[in-house]
Write a structure and sequence with these properties.
The protein is mostly helical. It has nine helices and no strands. Helix 2 packs antiparallel against helix 3 and helix 6 crosses helix 8. The longest helix has 36 residues. The radius of gyration is 19 Å and the shape is flat.
């Protein structure tokens, strides 16, 4: 992978891997007869399904049409996989919403098995995009093209959707990646919104990582 190029998949895919692993863990270790366990699982699954749908639509509305216009037929396999995966996500949503504390663990076990099967399919899908599709993107688009595409995608997100993405993306990044994304974010949004994101991260990142991010942001601010 060429780390010097703009990678349209890097950050969202790290966030999705994080969300997938968290929900898979919860689905496997929850007590399905416990209302609190079930509520936490359903909330986390809702986050995951929303992010998967947002990511799919970002690709279907921006990335894949632009690539298809450059290289006809290049996105057919990816588009077919999206249709299959979106169908599975819809089925998983129905499945988890049917679970209640009365239904017991049988439905919970079935959901866990279906979710982890989906997880394996989605990891393979992301590998396809990060390999074959990204190589084509880098061949036919400049970094400036990709930055503009990223900005157009971000403009479609509501503040709540940005918060949900950052909840899963930021903990999955290494310190320098966090600094890069948060420096740009801090410069682009009102102070109140930036601070709300930092407050939200306190519940999804360790205190050590939060303090390190704050320190790095303060150091770069002092240098400007």
């Amino acid at each position: 992978m060429n780390i010097e190029r703009v990678n349209v998949y890097a950050f969202p895919h790290k966030g999705l891997r994080n969300a997938l692993s968290q929900v898979a863990l919860l689905a496997g270790n929850s007590d399905y007869s416990d209302p609190e366990d079930l509520e936490v699982l359903k909330a986390s699954a809702s986050d995951l399904f929303n992010l998967l749908n947002l990511h799919a639509h970002s690709e279907d509305d921006f990335v894949l049409p632009a690539l298809e216009a450059k290289v006809k037929g290049s996105t057919a396999e990816n588009t077919e996989e999206h249709e299959l995966l979106e169908k599975i996500v819809a089925e998983l949503e129905v499945q988890i919403n049917s679970i209640s504390i009365v239904s017991g663990s049988e439905k919970g076990i079935a959901f866990y098995e279906a979710l982890t099967d989906f997880q394996s399919k989605y990891l393979a899908h992301m590998a396809l995009e990060e390999g074959e599709i990204l190589s084509l993107i880098w061949e036919y688009f400049t970094d400036q093209d990709l930055i503009q595409m990223h900005h157009k995608i971000m403009e479609t997100f509501s503040p709540d959707q940005v918060l949900r993405w950052f909840k899963y993306i930021l903990p999955a990044l290494n310190p320098m990646e966090r600094l890069k994304i948060m420096e740009g974010f801090k410069a682009a949004v009102p102070t109140e919104f930036f601070e709300s994101v930092m407050d939200m991260l306190s519940s999804s990142m360790s205190r050590r990582d939060i303090l390190r991010l704050e320190r790095m942001l303060n150091v770069t601010a002092d240098l400007t």
